[in-house]
Amino acid sequence: MQENIIPHNFEITNQERTQLKGHKALLLWFTGLSGSGKSTLANAVEQALFNQNIHTYTLDGDNVRKGLNSDLSFAPSDRTENIRRIAETAHLFIDAGIVVLAAFVSPYKKDREMVKKTVKDVNFVEIFVNTPLEECEKRDVKGLYAKARKGLIKDFTGVNAPYEVPENPDVTIDTTQTPIADAVKTILETIQPKLQA
Ligand code: PPS
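Above: the input record for the complex with PPS. Below: its predicted structure, written as C-alpha cells.
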C-alpha cells in the first residue's frame, strides 16, 4: 500500500522551526487510571509552560475520543489504534515545534513503547500518574467506576481491564501524596534541560 508514496522534502526544517520558537519540542505523556488526575496535571503544566512563552498543545482522552477517534471502542485492539493515531498526531505537532501534553489512560506497555519510538526517545517524557485505584474509585468524577462495578461497562481499566504499570517512567506522581503545585515543579525541573534549543 505504501509503495507509491514518496515523501516531499519541504524547505523549512524542524531545526529552523525550533530556532524560531526558541525551545525544543517534546511530548509529555501522562498515563494512569481514569480519575487519577492526568488531565488536571497536564492542564497545570501547560499553564506553567505557556507562561514561559513555550508553545504548547494538549491532547486529552475524552476530547480526542469525541473527534479523531470517535470510531474506536475500549477493546484492546481499539485502544492500541487510539494510541497509534495519537502518537502520529503528536509526531506532527513535534515536527511543528510544539510541546505536546498528552493525557491518556494508555494501559498497555507495548503501546506506550510504540509512542516513544514514533516520536523518538529524546522527545518523549513519560509521566506516571500513580494515584491508587481506591482513590480514583472514591473520586469517581464521571460515575464510571460505579457503572463498571455494576457490570454496565465492560473493559473498564482497573475494574475489568488491565493497567500495566510503567517500569521506568521519567516522573511518578501520586496525587494523594503530592500537591499539584509540587508535581508541576517536579515535571518542569525534569523537562527544562530537554527544552533547551
Ligand atoms: S485508552 O485506554 O488510552 O485508549 O483510553 P483514553 O483514550 O485515555 O480514554 C479514557 C477516558 O474514557 C473514559 N472511559 C474509559 N476509560 C477506561 N476504560 C473504559 N472502558 C472507559 N470507558 C470510558 C474515561 O472517562 C477516561 O477518561 P479519564 O480522563 O482517563 O478519566
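Notes for the reader.
Residues 48 and 163 are 29 Å apart (CA to CA).
The first strand starts at residue 27 and ends at 31.
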